[in-house]
Specification:
The protein contains seven helices and eight strands, in the order E-H-E-H-E-H-E-H-E-E-E-H-E-H-H. The protein is of the alpha/beta class. Pfam families: Isochorismatase.
Amino acid sequence: MQTTIRRALIVIDVQNDYIGGNLPITWPPVEQSLANIGRAMDAAKAAGIPVVAVQNILPASAPFMAEGTTGAELHPVVTSRGWDHYVQKDMPVAFCKTDLEAWLKERQITTLAIVGYITHNCDLSTAIAALHRGFQVEFLSDASGSLPYANKAGSATAEEIHRVTTVVLQARFAAVMTTEEWLQSIASGAEPERDTIFASHQRAIKGV
């Protein structure tokens, strides 16, 4: 028996430090992802899908997202459109020490569509946590973004990190799609394509 999809759009950490600030997103190009975040928010409003704005606020001594700084403020793409619920957090997962889960379940939300930043940190951890809490997850790959890393374990470009994270998400945790595909899905009511670890692995070893 098919369950009726009741979505919420979760707009994660679209803050100034990620848009040319102290921790700039570089892939996909941030201008592209910002435009798609705006499109997703507009479509959600038109379809009656509640929008949740999430904001990461760190201590005043932090090098980014520091409390009271311009970098920590939500970007105008979000503030100009407004939201149905607001969540402030200080950890990657949007569910940690917040009322998000209770708010969603009170409204019988079944599916979370995630946009925002960063793909491989707050987006990924929130998607995993959502699955563990019984939600279905959709991830809009071109309405999110990554940045490069270099540390003891090695280095990776923003494009590599974003691509690999979306592959991992699609294999178990979320239906990964473009913003355009998501708009078509909410218009038609069609279920997005989901996958499994086993099937993803089989395609890899068979070169499909």
